């Protein structure tokens, strides 16, 4: 039988690409043949990260769509979008790459599986055409998935009047959330249709109909939520992380040794001075107002704690605030305006705290290098991540807002207070102890014989066994997901109803969470849940 051959297809964003490249390291170590799909502008980063030649034939470029309304020509990564509001248009435009992807797939031999980002939902249709199992990679934890399923299937947002009222999560009664922990339109009583909702629902449907879900987490971190998700007739969750602990290839290690940026020299200086540093970063896509930037600057300055602040936004207002701060601080603080190797920062011995937006990659990196978090979520699922960090696994504290709400304005004195508490206070000591304990668990999970190490081996073996079995019988490799009792409409593909999953809406006495919808047209003009009797075969 042929050896395993995996296709890896990351979404065009560094935060989504890097974990899948870490996964690629693990697969290479297991002697799995890889073919990686990307776009022309993203190829150099991927090649450098993997230590491959830029023209390596195992990296296949697809032409990224041009002339997307509102998006400047040449932008092929969300990191460079002028505004996060353009994300739905960017993500939807990736569908135009589907014919090119399928043409390239046709020329590949013996593909065992496709691991594609959950945002690339259309790759499921491509995988099914070629009879290849598709695994969805979602860059979030299982806590978010489990809480979300309870919230939407039980319609928990239909009750409270205020967006800041605490709501008890039905299946996990110790967890309290608010509507403001979710983005619009998901936090509305009846979500309004539009590009954002359409995109999320299409991703949800495709993931639910994939062979499995690859999770960048480890079982010991959230066993209750992994077990909850795997108890349902949904794709199995395979926890193979934290992927940031995957050892890079020698060329990448060598590049890190020879590259010694100014911020690293500054951290070395602080270490020699025996000064603890708080690292501040809010991701590459958060929109922070000038007024809030000024309060952050003042709070960090008044805390008298040394800090390294990475600022990704480059505009006149931001630059004015940063320049003023630099002039006042001298050597006590450093501001970086470029992409940084965050892992190298968190690994540095001088870094003792992280003011973070709580993107899941950042949370995992904090865990792995045992740096406690001051949680300041900005967007997407980050507010739920922050609840997990502070309330569930207790490895961080949370910033104080003026009005106590989860999306409120943060004044300088509130930030100063919590930075000092994280770095020097009793609560800071407690979360530091906890993150050290969980960090050790993360290393054990990824080490040979650990839970994530075993899970990845089991996934590879299962996929290879499926392929061998299908090949011997001359059958298609794709596994059709259709739970018992579901009736399948003629000429339609059985898909999980994203509307019900997201809204909890049910229509008809025999409404099922599974529904037949035409691939590629499901989102056009849908204003109600189609899980009704006239959508199933009699």
Automatic annotation (TrEMBL):
This is Glycosyltransferase. One of its GO terms (molecular function) is UDP-glucosyltransferase activity. Pfam families: UDPGT. It comes from the Eukaryota. Coiled coil: none annotated. Belongs to the UDP-glycosyltransferase family. The keyword Signal does not apply. Keywords: Glycosyltransferase, Transferase. It is an enzyme of class 2 (transferase). Its EC number is 2.4.1.-.
């Amino acid at each position: 039988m042929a050896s395993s051959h995996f296709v890896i297809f990351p979404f065009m964003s560094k935060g989504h690409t890097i974990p899948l490249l870490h996964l690629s390291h693990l697969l290479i170590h297991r002697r799995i043949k890889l073919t990686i799909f990307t776009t022309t502008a993203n190829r150099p980063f991927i090649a450098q990260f993997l230590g491959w030649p830029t023209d390596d034939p195992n990296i296949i470029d697809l032409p990224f769509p041009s002339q997307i309304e509102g998006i400047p020509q040449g932008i092929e990564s969300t990191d460079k979008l002028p505004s996060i509001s353009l994300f739905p248009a960017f993500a939807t435009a990736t569908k135009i790459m589907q014919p090119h992807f399928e043409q390239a797939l046709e020329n590949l031999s013996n593909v065992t599986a496709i691991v594609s980002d959950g945002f690339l939902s259309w790759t499921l249709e491509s995988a099914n055409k070629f009879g290849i199992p598709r695994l969805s990679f979602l860059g979030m934890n299982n806590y978010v998935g489990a809480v979300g399923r309870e919230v939407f299937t039980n319609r928990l947002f239909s009750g409270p009047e205020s967006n800041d009222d605490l709501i008890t999560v039905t299946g996990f009664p110790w967890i309290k959330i608010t509507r403001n922990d979710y983005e619009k339109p998901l936090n509305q009583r009846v979500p309004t249709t539009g590009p954002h909702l359409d995109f999320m629902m299409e991703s949800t449907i495709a993931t639910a109909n994939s062979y499995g879900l690859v999770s960048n987490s480890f079982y010991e971190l959230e066993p209750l939520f992994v077990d909850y998700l795997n108890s349902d007739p949904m794709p199995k969750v395979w926890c193979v992380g934290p992927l940031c602990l995957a050892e890079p290839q020698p060329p990448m290690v060598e590049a890190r040794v020879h590259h010694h940026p100014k911020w690293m020299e500054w951290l070395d200086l602080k270490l020699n001075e025996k000064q603890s540093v708080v690292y501040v970063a809010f991701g590459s896509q958060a929109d922070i107002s000038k007024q809030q930037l000024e309060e952050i600057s003042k709070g960090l300055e008044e805390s008298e704690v040394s800090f390294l602040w990475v600022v990704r936004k480059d505009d006149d207002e931001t630059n004015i605030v940063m320049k003023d701060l630099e002039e006042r601080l001298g050597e006590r603080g450093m501001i970086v305006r470029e992409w940084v190797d965050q892992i190298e920062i968190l690994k540095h011995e001088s870094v003792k705290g992280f003011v973070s937006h709580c993107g899941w990659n950042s949370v995992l990196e904090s865990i792995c290098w045992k740096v406690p978090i001051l949680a300041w979520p900005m967007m997407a699922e980050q507010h739920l991540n922050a609840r997990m960090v502070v309330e569930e696994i207790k490895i961080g504290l949370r910033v104080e807002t003026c009005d106590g709400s989860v999306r409120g304005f943060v004044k300088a004195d509130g930030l100063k207070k919590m930075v000092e508490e994280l770095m020097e206070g009793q609560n800071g000591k407690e979360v530091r102890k906890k993150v050290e304990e969980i960090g050790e668990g993360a290393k054990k999970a990824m080490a040979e014989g650990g839970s994530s190490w075993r899970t990845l081996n089991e996934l590879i073996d299962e996929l290879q066994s499926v392929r061998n079995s299908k090949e011997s019988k001359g059958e298609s490799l794709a596994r059709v997901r259709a739970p018992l009792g579901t009736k399948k409409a003629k000429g339609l593909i059985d898909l999980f109803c994203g509307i019900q999953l997201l809204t909890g809406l049910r229509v008809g006495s025999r409404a099922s969470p599974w529904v037949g919808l035409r691939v590629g047209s499901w989102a056009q003009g849908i204003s109600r849940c189609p899980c009704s009797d006239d959508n199933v075969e009699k």
